[in-house]
Structures are given as structure tokens and as C-alpha cells.
């Protein structure tokens, strides 16, 4: 995989936004897979600035990585509502250009299968944005998830529910127990995977992902199997990389036109 070390989160956001802008120019109706949480926000901020500067994203389509199960449609803390606030609306996209799994469906397993079919029918994800957990998880694929897994329902760990309670008035009883997540196999179907990691607390997970063996214990290590995976990390998140100097030199020598 390609590893790019940047000074800080803002620089990482700018770099990835540039890759998305290049994609949109090449393929105006590209399908962009987005992630929630604080890590990808610099990407969306930088991409919005490009749109305000004249980048035409009117045909861009957006899809979700995961969704809570059991929240009513329109709940402000659903991941659908979050992506609408943080991505779709700032970019000025019509809501019909955005889709994701139905976490309120009566048949959740059917909803998972429907979502994989919808991704395929849309032509597949062109670029999928990913974050990483401190334990190496991507999406809600926790350690020991199958590397061939498809979109499915997962049970949230108690710690994850505690961590997410801040979005639910600090009331853990309001936090759902289950989520729908793209499986690792589904994620690997995307044409370009771009993982952004920032902060020293992600250093061990980044090192295990990039330099460790491919193992279900570190779900993000599956990116090593992908033909076009890019890992963008700030200096703090790069502190565990034995080959950090090599990665810096390799990217510095890359032609300006090549991008990521």
C-alpha cells in the first residue's frame, strides 16, 4: 500500500480532497464512500472549499460505510443524518444522490443484502474514505472479523457505546446496541481505499496495519490485499512506523501529476 506522511490533519484533509477532486474531474458521476466521526472532517472541509472555488460536483454520488440499527428515520444522530449535515449539504448535493443501508428496516439481514446489491448496481464505490480505531478496526469490523465479510449487522461493544454516549446527551441507554456495517470484503470492492489516521493514539494501529501481517486481529491490515490503497497519516500517527523515513522519501520523489 501507499503510505503518505503529512504534517497534520489539515494537510491530510487537503491531500485527500485533491484526490477526490481529481476523481470528479475524470468521472463526474463517481460514487464516493464516506465515513463519519471527527477524523474525516478535514477532508469534507477541504472538499467544500474546492466546491466553493468552482469544482463541479453536481453529479457526484455519496454512500455510507455504516448505520445504527433501530433509530427512527430522521434521528439527528443517525449516520445518515450526520452525513447529510457534514457532507451532502455542504457540497450542495441533492439528497437523492446519497444512499446507505436502512437501519430501521423490519428485516435487517435483508437490508444488509439489499445494500450490497445497491452498491453493485451503482457501479461500485470509486473511492472509499476510511478511519481506523485504536484496535485496528475499520467501519464496525472489530478485531477477528472475517476478511471476506459482506455488509452485515454487528453488536457494538460496551466501550463503543460508552464512547458514543456523548452524541446521545451522555445517556448510554439511548445508544443503539447494533449497527449495519459494510464488511471487509465489501470495503475491498472499492476501486481506491483511502485511510486517514491522525494522533498518537492511532500510531500502534497504523503500524500494525501497514507493517504487520495481514490478520483478522487487525481488520485494517486487509488493505494490504488491495491493489490501490492509500494510508495518509500525520506525524503523530506515524511514530510507530519503522519505515517512516522510506515512506517520506518515496512520496517526495513521486511525480506531481501522479496524485494518490
UniProtKB/TrEMBL annotation:
Can you tell which superkingdom this protein's organism belongs to? Answer: Bacteria
Q: In which pathway does it act?
A: Amino-sugar metabolism; N-acetylneuraminate degradation; D-fructose 6-phosphate from N-acetylneuraminate: step 5/5
Which residues does this entry assign to the site Part of the allosteric site?
A: 145, 152, 154-155
Query: Do you know which CDD domains this protein is assigned to?
Result: GlcN6P_deaminase (cd01399)
Give its E.C. classification number.
Answer: 3.5.99.6
Q: What HAMAP family does the record point to?
A: GlcN6P_deamin
A GO molecular-function annotation:
glucosamine-6-phosphate deaminase activity
What reaction does this enzyme carry out catalytically? alpha-D-glucosamine 6-phosphate + H2O = beta-D-fructose 6-phosphate + NH4(+)
The free-text function statement in the UniProt record for this protein reads: Catalyzes the reversible isomerization-deamination of glucosamine 6-phosphate (GlcN6P) to form fructose 6-phosphate (Fru6P) and ammonium ion.
Gene transcribed to yield this protein: nagB
What this protein is called in its record is Glucosamine-6-phosphate deaminase
What are the alphabetically sorted keywords of the record? Allosteric enzyme, Carbohydrate metabolism, Hydrolase
Q: Which residues form the Glucosamine/galactosamine-6-phosphate isomerase domain?
A: 10-225
* Ways its activity is controlled: Allosterically activated by N-acetylglucosamine 6-phosphate (GlcNAc6P).
The record's active-site residues are: 66 (proton acceptor), 135 (for ring-opening step), 137 (proton acceptor), 142 (for ring-opening step)
- Per UniProt, the enzyme's principal EC class comes to hydrolase
What Pfam families does this protein map onto? Glucosamine_iso
Q: Which family does it belong to?
A: Belongs to the glucosamine/galactosamine-6-phosphate isomerase family. NagB subfamily.
Amino acid at each position: 500500500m501507499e503510505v503518505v506522511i503529512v504534517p497534520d490533519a489539515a494537510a491530510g484533509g487537503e491531500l485527500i480532497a485533491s484526490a477526490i477532486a481529481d476523481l470528479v474531474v475524470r468521472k463526474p458521476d463517481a460514487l464516493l464512500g464516506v465515513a463519519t466521526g471527527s477524523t474525516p472532517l478535514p477532508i469534507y472541509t477541504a472538499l467544500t472549499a474546492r466546491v466553493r472555488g468552482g469544482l463541479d460536483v453536481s453529479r457526484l454520488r455519496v454512500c455510507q460505510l455504516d448505520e445504527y440499527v433501530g433509530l427512527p428515520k430522521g434521528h439527528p444522530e443517525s449516520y445518515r443524518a450526520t452525513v447529510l449535515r457534514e457532507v451532502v449539504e455542504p457540497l450542495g448535493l441533492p439528497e437523492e444522490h446519497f444512499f446507505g443501508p436502512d437501519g430501521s428496516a423490519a428485516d435487517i439481514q435483508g437490508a444488509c443484502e439489499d445494500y450490497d446489491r445497491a452498491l453493485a448496481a451503482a457501479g461500485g464505490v470509486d473511492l472509499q474514505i476510511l478511519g481506523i480505531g485504536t484496535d485496528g478496526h475499520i467501519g464496525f469490523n472489530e478485531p477477528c472479523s472475517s476478511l471476506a465479510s459482506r455488509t452485515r449487522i454487528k453488536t457494538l461493544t460496551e466501550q463503543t457505546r460508552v464512547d458514543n454516549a456523548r452524541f446521545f446527551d451522555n445517556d448510554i441507554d439511548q445508544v443503539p446496541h447494533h449497527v449495519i456495517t459494510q464488511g471487509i470484503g465489501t470495503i475491498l470492492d472499492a476501486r481506491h481505499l483511502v485511510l486517514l489516521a491522525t494522533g498518537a493514539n492511532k500510531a500502534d494501529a497504523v503500524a500494525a496495519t501497514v507493517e504487520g501481517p495481514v490478520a483478522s486481529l487487525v481488520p485494517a491490515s486487509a488493505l494490504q490485499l488491495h491493489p490501490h490503497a492509500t494510508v495518509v497519516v500525520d506525524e503523530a500517527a506515524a511514530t510507530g512506523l519503522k519505515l517512516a523515513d522510506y515512506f517520506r522519501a518515496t512520496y517526495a520523489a513521486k511525480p506531481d501529476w501522479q496524485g494518490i
